[in-house]
């Protein structure tokens, strides 16, 4: 869908800014509610994530002695900023992105990685054993999940012959769904997304029963609220990207809701179905299996492109 | 504790006293090199309540309820051990129906405790689905216990000389239905534990303890039985009605965390089988025998099999209305040594599961007070002394 | 060897109602043997005070107004009571019972938790006497 809105309104209200923050909260609610229903529980009420955010913003922020004060306060803001900026190039809510340009796929993925890196830095900055272990695990998981995820995103990019997300989105809308044409890529993308977002079973970096809250142990109040918001927005962006690339493009709000909703349902099921993998298991599994599968998929696509060129 | 790198990557991760992995406070320090644990130490005593001292101030009947509240999960078995010791001292034996009812409560408690443990250990491993479902099914046992005794924990079913509550036939039928449902669900959980790949990845080969180690460290209960060390007080020294309604010991050979899961689930199913047998052959008799208020002087020991292992009571009477000394040695106390020994060489992520694997019950544990201070007379402390010490310590 | 052996349970739960009981909007009645608040019948009491002696929490006090005519008032400290029902068993005349309907007893002050049981005139007599003297003399 193509809308003409003043850029400032885009940045502040729709589809960026406040609307994006609100949608992050809604997706967090949907995720928690689905996980709860799978576990035969009731789950939170609709306004629960908003209530959580408000409560956190009202809490006192305690900066541990020995941590670098400026970094401690700045890192949550950087994380939220990267998440909000990454959303500008993605077809959020079915609306064509306003600021897209050639090569913005790489920029978006880079910005999402910057979010995870700032999470790891926040953990390393806090002078606390749990945060250090959590930061180590976050960065380790970053290394092992970024590469396969990028490979999986490149698959449709190769097929669409473009590095611009809106063009890939449009291409995916016209041809057969890539989930059918590149099934291995879809699997890699889905698991990679869960690893990037640190969702169970890949939540070793913030394993509650082992290292309290991982990198975010020392954060409370405003910093924690901002990190949570950044992660929620990352969830929305990730879902939109995978839905846009593999589930036939997102061209209007109804398609957006249905496709991201369906993907969220599958992800919620995968979240509850497995025990948590240890960090060495996640890395071992995914660096070998995932990267390999991604490479195989890329080779298959390249082969397909050359064969078609040779035939036609 | 400030962070000071001490060469060779010596890095101490404290788990507890406040930690999401522990349901009760206890302090563990793991010396970590990267993710591998190279050393461990434990410190307990955070929930010490002075129960053994408090027991000397209360009459025998009042002590029954104090002993019950040592632990919430294994409350009935504590009361049973105490009551058995007192009855031995008094020279009476509880009537057959009372002993059968004691066994019924004990086995129902074992079912509830093992299901609780299954959920908690699954949660430590990040498997929240198993946690939620096993606790949902545990509600069936809790409802049965509430129907029998009026309370979900702390059933208070024992009296000195017998039991308080009788079990009429309608209740037995309802319990049988509940047991059928539980058995079906437990078979499903056994299947999950044995076959789920992610779960096996977290539990197989972790915390392996050989039989010699189990004997050396003095492990008890399902922790020891999972290492092929066949010892169960219900079989080796039957109490209550275990002579008439015996239980079969469940032993596993592998000795790792996975074996402990399997042993506990199979024990739960064995409890269900024994319960059905008791319901079919319930002896008829009265419920209480008369026991005098003053228990004759003497000393005795009383051993029972709590869900966590062997529970040991020493009771000394001087002929009065109040006990002279009650000493409790709980099973979890024996199993800590195994955790400390086994932790070395594993990854940090396995620590919570190894801790949970012995089914720790910190409230049961804190029978010890370690007081390291100069004082005049180190042998005898009165209630007032202890109280003063506590006030001074926290000032 | 299976991945996600609980998936069947999970998907079935999506179509079932959640198992949570939405207390306080849904209240299930307590079972018959539930141990709630203590109730005392003064008619049958003989003043043997076995219940007082056996209570682990010293929650029962029996105030003797007139021993010969069996006029007693029971002062029940509901905040100390642990609802163990030992007193119910100790009483040989079945004067005591634990209710199975009164169990939502949370209050915000201590006053409602000191309950006096007895015949009305006995309680009035007691309160008048307490008002006249500065301190009453309960037995044990």
Automatic annotation (TrEMBL), chain A:
Q: Report the principal subcellular site.
A: membrane
Q: Which UniProt keywords apply?
A: Membrane, Transmembrane, Transmembrane helix
What domain of life is recorded for the organism? Bacteria
One cellular component term (GO) for this entry is: plasma membrane
| Chain segments annotated as transmembrane | 6-27, 71-93, 105-124, 175-193, 232-250, 256-274, 286-307
InterPro entries this protein is in? ComplexI_Subunit1 (IPR052561), NADH_UbQ_OxRdtase_su1/FPO (IPR001694)
Specify the protein's topology with respect to the membrane. Multi-pass membrane protein
Q: Where in the cell is it found?
A: Membrane
Annotated PANTHER family? FORMATE HYDROGENLYASE SUBUNIT 4, FORMATE HYDROGENLYASE SUBUNIT 4-RELATED
Protein name (Swiss-Prot/TrEMBL): NADH-quinone oxidoreductase subunit H
UniProtKB/TrEMBL annotation, chain B:
> What parts of the sequence cross the membrane?
none
User: Magnesium: is it a keyword of this entry?
Assistant: yes
Q: What positions does the entry give for Ni(2+) binding?
A: 71, 74, 361
Q: Which InterPro entries match?
A: ComplexI_49kDa-like, NADH_Q_OxRdtase_suD, Ni-dep_hyd_lsu, Ni-dep_hyd_lsu_Ni_BS, NiFe-Hase_large
Residues given in the record as Fe cation binding sites: 74, 364
Q: Where does Mg(2+) bind?
A: 52, 328
List GO molecular-function terms, semicolon-separated.
ferredoxin hydrogenase activity; NAD binding; nickel cation binding; oxidoreductase activity, acting on NAD(P)H; quinone binding
Keyword entries, A-Z: Iron, Magnesium, Metal-binding, Nickel, Oxidoreductase
One Pfam match, given by its short name, reads Complex1_49kDa
Needed cofactors = Fe cation; Ni(2+)
Q: Which domain of life is it from?
A: Bacteria
> Locate the NADH-quinone oxidoreductase subunit D domain: which residues?
126-290, 294-367
- Name-wise, this protein is NADH dehydrogenase subunit
Q: Which organism is it from?
A: Bellilinea caldifistulae
UniProtKB/TrEMBL annotation, chain C:
UniProt xrefs under SUPFAM superfamilies: 4Fe-4S ferredoxins (SSF54862)
Record-level GO cellular component terms: membrane
Which Pfam families does this chain map to?
Fer4 (PF00037), Fer4_4 (PF12800)
Give GO terms: molecular function aspect only: 4 iron, 4 sulfur cluster binding; metal ion binding; NADH dehydrogenase activity
What is the name of the protein in this document? Answer: 4Fe-4S dicluster domain-containing protein
Cite the InterPro entries for this sequence. Answer: 4Fe4S_Fe-S-bd (IPR017896), 4Fe4S_Fe_S_CS (IPR017900), NADH_quinone_OxRdtase_chainI (IPR010226)
State whether keyword Ribonucleoprotein applies: no
The UniProt keywords, alphabetically, are:
4Fe-4S, Iron, Iron-sulfur, Metal-binding, Repeat
Q: Which organism is it from?
A: Bellilinea caldifistulae
For the keyword Metal-binding, the answer is yes
- 4Fe-4S ferredoxin-type domain residues are 36-65, 72-101
Q: Name one GO biological process term.
A: aerobic respiration
């Amino acid at each position: 869908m193509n809308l003409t809105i003043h850029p400032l309104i885009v940045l502040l209200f729709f589809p960026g800014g406040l609307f994006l923050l609100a949608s992050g909260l809604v997706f967090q609610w949907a995720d928690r509610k689905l996980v709860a229903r799978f576990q035969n529980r009731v789950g939170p009420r609709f306004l629960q994530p908003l209530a959580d955010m408000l409560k956190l913003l009202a809490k006192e922020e305690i900066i541990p002695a020995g941590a670098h004060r400026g970094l401690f306060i700045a890192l949550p803001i950087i994380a939220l900023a990267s998440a909000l900026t990454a959303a500008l190039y993605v077809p959020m809510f079915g609306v064509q992105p306003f600021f897209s340009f050639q090569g913005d796929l790489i920029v978006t993925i880079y910005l999402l990685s910057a979010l995870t890196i700032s999470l790891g830095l926040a953990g390393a900055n806090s002078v606390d054993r749990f945060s250090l272990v959590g930061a180590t695990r976050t960065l380790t998981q970053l290394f092992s999940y970024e590469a396969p995820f990028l490979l999986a995103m490149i698959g449709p990019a190769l097929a669409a012959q473009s590095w611009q997300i809106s063009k890939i989105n449009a291409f995916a809308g016209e041809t057969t769904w890539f989930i059918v044409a590149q099934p291995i890529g879809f699997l890699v993308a889905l698991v990679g997304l869960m690893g990037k977002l640190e969702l169970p079973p890949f939540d070793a970096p913030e394993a509650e029963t082992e290292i309290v809250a991982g990198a975010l142990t020392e954060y409370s109040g405003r910093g924690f609220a901002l990190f949570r918001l950044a992660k929620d927005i990352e969830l929305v962006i990730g879902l939109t990207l995978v839905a846009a690339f593999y589930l036939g493009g997102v061209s209007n709000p109804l398609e957006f809701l249905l496709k991201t909703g369906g993907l969220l349902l599958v992800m919620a099921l995968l979240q509850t179905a497995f025990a948590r993998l240890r960090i060495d298991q996640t890395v071992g599994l995914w660096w070998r299996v995932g990267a390999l599968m991604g490479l195989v998929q890329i080779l298959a696509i390249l082969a397909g492109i050359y064969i078609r060129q040779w035939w036609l | 504790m400030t962070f000071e790198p001490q060469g060779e990557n010596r890095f101490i991760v404290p788990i507890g006293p406040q930690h999401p992995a522990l349901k009760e406070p206890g302090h563990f320090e793991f010396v970590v090199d990267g993710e591998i644990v190279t050393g461990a130490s434990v410190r307990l005593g955070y929930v010490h309540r002075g129960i053994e001292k408090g027991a000397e101030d209360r009459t025998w009947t009042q002590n029954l309820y104090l002993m019950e509240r040592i632990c919430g999960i294994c409350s009935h078995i504590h009361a049973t051990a105490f009551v058995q010791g007192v009855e031995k001292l008094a020279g009476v034996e509880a009537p057959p129906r009372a002993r059968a009812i004691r066994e019924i409560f004990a086995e129902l408690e074992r079912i509830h405790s093992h299901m609780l443990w299954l959920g908690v250990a699954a949660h430590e491993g990040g498997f929240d689905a198993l946690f939620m479902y096993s606790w949902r099914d545990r509600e069936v046992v809790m409802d049965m216990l509430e129907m029998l005794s009026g309370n979900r924990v702390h059933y208070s079913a024992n009296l000195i000389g017998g039991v308080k509550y009788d079990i009429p036939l309608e209740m037995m039928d309802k319990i049988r239905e509940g047991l059928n449902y539980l058995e079906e669900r437990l078979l499903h959980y056994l299947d999950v534990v044995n076959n789920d790949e992610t779960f096996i990845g977290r539990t197989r080969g972790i915390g392996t303890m050989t039989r010699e180690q189990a004997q050396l460290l003095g492990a008890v209960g399902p922790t020891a039985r999972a290492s092929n060390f066949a010892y169960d007080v219900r079989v080796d020294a039957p109490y209550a009605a275990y002579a008439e309604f015996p239980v079969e010991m469940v032993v596993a050979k592998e000795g790792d965390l996975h074996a402990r899961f399997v042993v506990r689930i199979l024990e739960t199913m064995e409890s269900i089988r024994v319960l059905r047998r008791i319901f079919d052959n319930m002896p008829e008799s009265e419920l209480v025998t008369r026991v005098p208020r003053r228990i004759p002087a003497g000393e005795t020991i009383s051993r029972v099999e709590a869900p966590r292992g062997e529970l040991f009571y020493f009771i000394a009477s001087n002929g009065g209305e109040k006990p002279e000394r009650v000493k409790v040695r709980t099973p979890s106390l024996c199993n800590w040594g195994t955790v400390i020994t086994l932790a070395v060489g594993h990854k940090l992520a396995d620590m919570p599961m190894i801790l949970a694997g012995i089914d720790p019950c910190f409230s049961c544990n804190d029978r010890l007070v370690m007081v390291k201070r100069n004082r005049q007379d180190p042998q005898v402390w009165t209630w007032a002394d202890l109280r003063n010490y506590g006030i001074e310590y926290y000032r | 060897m299976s991945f996600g052996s609980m998936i069947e349970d999970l998907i079935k739960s999506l179509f079932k109602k959640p198992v949570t009981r939405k207390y306080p909007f849904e209240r299930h009645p307590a079972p018959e043997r539930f141990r709630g608040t203590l109730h005392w019948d003064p008619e049958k009491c003989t003043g043997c005070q076995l219940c007082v002696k056996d209570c682990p929490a010293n929650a029962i006090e029996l105030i003797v107004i007139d021993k010969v005519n069996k006029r007693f008032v029971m002062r029940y400290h509901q905040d100390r009571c642990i609802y163990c029902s030992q007193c119910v068993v100790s009483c040989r005349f079945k004067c005591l019972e634990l209710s199975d309907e009164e169990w939502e007893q949370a209050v915000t002050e201590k006053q409602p938790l000191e309950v006096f049981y007895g015949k009305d005139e006995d309680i009035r007599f007691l309160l008048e006497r307490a008002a006249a003297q500065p301190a009453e003399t309960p037995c044990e």
